[in-house]
Amino acid sequence: MPANHLWTESEIRCLSSFWETHSYKCVAIKLGLDRGSIVYRGLKLGLRPHSKRVRCCGKPRIYRGPENSLYKGRKLWQNRKRRTAYWFLYRPNHPRANKRGYVKASHVIVEEKMGRLLKPEEIVHHINFDSVDDQPENLAVLTAISHKLVERTLHDLVKALMEKGIVGFDGSRYFLRF
User: Fold this and answer.
1) Other CB atoms closer than 10 Å to residue 41's CB: what's the count?
2) What is the mean pLDDT of the chain?
3) How far, rounded to the nearest angstrom, does the alpha carbon of residue 53 sit from its chain's CA centroid?
4) What is the domain count for the chain?
5) 62-101 burial, b for 16+ CB within 10 Å, e for fewer?
6) DSSP character for 170?
7) Residues of the chain scoring pLDDT < 50
8) Residues 99 and 52 in one domain
9) Same-domain status, 161 and 98
């Protein structure tokens, strides 16, 4: 839009009427102008700036769950420090849901398989150590003690393979020697 655009009375009325119920983008599309001009003119007219949760085209925005247009059923969260990633499902009423309403997919899959909720002391173990592989046959429910035992067994196995020269370590990861 040119900088010297003169606003007509109908454009100002439209801007004022849609300001509270529509996003800047929706108003800009309705008037055929760019978003920056809409914000600038609205503030010049003394209209209050929008909050982040403004309605778009008269409908409230849906941010989470299946009613969001971008929702694909699950979400991948990564922890770069630990080098892990887990799939999460949107289940806001689940007892293990985080503050955003998501639960680890592996927990939901195991609970459906067992027909009950996991107990607080139970841990879901990925048998092939791939935390994003949530196939039911790859998941095992263990107590904290038995999970530590599995990890210790793996540690002992790797140590024995290193002593025999089958497995090596290059400073950041283990590898097979052929």
Assistant:
1) 19
2) 81
3) 19
4) 2
5) eeeeeeeeeeeeeeeeeeeeeeeebbbbbbeebeebeeee
6) -
7) 1
8) no
9) yes
